[in-house]
Amino acid sequence: MKIIEKSGFFLFLLAAGACAPEPEPEPECLKHLDCSSTEKPYCEPLSQSCAVPPRAHLIGWDDDNLDMAQLELVYEAPAGMEATSMDFRPGTNQMWVALRWPITQGRCTSGMTPRDYCETLAGRVAVVGDITTRNSRIRLYDDGNAWHFMRLPMGLTFGDGEFFVTCAESRTCNFDDEPADFAGPSLWTSDPTIFAISRPGQNGSHMDMLHSSPLCTGMAHEEDNVFWAFNGRVGSVDSYDFGRDHGPGQDDHTDGAMQRYLKGEVSRVANVASQMAFDRQSGNLYIADSGNGQILELDTFSGSRAAMVLPNFDEIQTNHEFTGESWRRVDGDDGSFGVPSGLVLIDDILYISDHRMGEITALDLQGNIIRRLPLPHEEPGLLRQGPEGFLYVVYQMRGEIYRIVGNPHDFR
Questions:
Q1: Structure confidence at residue 23 (pLDDT)
Q2: All domains of the chain, ordered by start, with CATH?
Q3: 1-19 burial code (b ≥16 CB/10 A, e <16)
């Protein structure tokens, strides 16, 4: 009996223990800095466990926190100049910045010499030697014929190697009292033994130029020497193939090609970038249509070649408009954007700066807003992703460029 009683008492204790509540597990994290793993640095707020960063993490990790990202000033233009656009030279940490003086009401006429008012239309390029280090050396470059080939530059964009383009936010790159709308993108090399070095018998250091996109406010690279230009004069996006460059300061443009899409469907806002991004996987071109406040997707394989664009200044064989293109508005009709300006495509997410609203929006390709980042300064412009993965934003009128740090582990 005693043994049975002891055994029953033991069973009673086991049963009582089974009914006791389990202790709550300790949370893995309470804040992002509790997660030390580089693979899972994000503290998921509901599960309080470490996870991979959320979608669109380049502009912050927390939707309900206005301090979800930090901006670090990385470049200031020379006093009085605008920084209109920039890009990173592939394979390096160099940042190349297009500079210009503010547009005024003056006119560059045939009665002047280029050293008069016309010279103020000439753009410059600043090269930051290493964007990943503080106080990196900055060099300024002036082409000998920049008043034509780098006139009021916008859209500085690199290809896959040493070549880059700029385009002119100008009706003409000649004298203003000439009637022809003679402006378009210029091709340059970043080779320091060629760029901005004047030699006898050469027309500046440009490597090529085509002349069918006046009042250009944005460029995008497709492949090789193929680039897209936002034509603010006729409201189109123009595809340019420079073909083989003609060498420094020469003038044979006849192997080039131009094809015009969406004529009359897009619109420019003066002094505001209209950035574009080409998706090599799909062949779609994404467009910040600043004048109409919308984001467009163009199927560049669609449409049929139609009439030749005249006049054909460059005497090229392909200089045509397209009709019947397939395109759509990505952002819907809800007025999500005021004046979209900067646009980059990263991992199937569009990051778009809004010049009017002063914010950056992350949008998926179905038009769904993932998150928004309010910015401390008004009128943000062009966007780029830097070599270390951060997003950068250009403030044209301020002449400033900022790095956006969305990862709290990188906050300073």
A1: 78
A2: 28-55 (no CATH), 80-340 (2.120.10)
A3: eeeeeeeeeeeeeeeeeee
Q: What is the pLDDT of residue 22?
A: 77
- pLDDT at site 335: 75
How many angstroms separate the CA atoms of 293 and 337, rounded?
6
Question: What is the rounded CA–CA span in Å between residue 381 and residue 151?
Answer: 19
Closest to 342 measured CA to CA, from 59, 78, 128: 59
Q: Which amino acid is at 320?
A: H
Residue keyed to tokens 């080039």? 256
Which residue carries 């408009």 as its tokens?
Answer: 321
Average pLDDT over residues 247-252: 95
- 149 membership: H or E segment, kind and range: helix 146-149
Mean pLDDT of 10-30: 66
Closest CA to 407 of 75, 44, 27, 62: 62
Separation CA 79–CA 246 (nearest Å): 35
What confidence category does residue 214 fall into, taking pLDDT thresholds of 50, 70 and 90?
very high
3-class secondary structure, 327: strand
- pLDDT at residue 9, as a whole number: 42
% pLDDT > 70, the chain: 93
Tokens 């009683």: give the residue. 5
Structure tokens at 58: 């380049």
Residues 6+ apart with CB under 8 A from 373: 59, 60, 68, 69, 359, 360, 361, 404
Burial 383-402 (b: 16+ CB within 10 A, else e): bbbbbeebbbbbbbebbbbb
∠ Cα 232 238 241 (to 5°): 140
Instruction: Give the containing element (helix H, strand E) for 125.
Output: strand 124-128
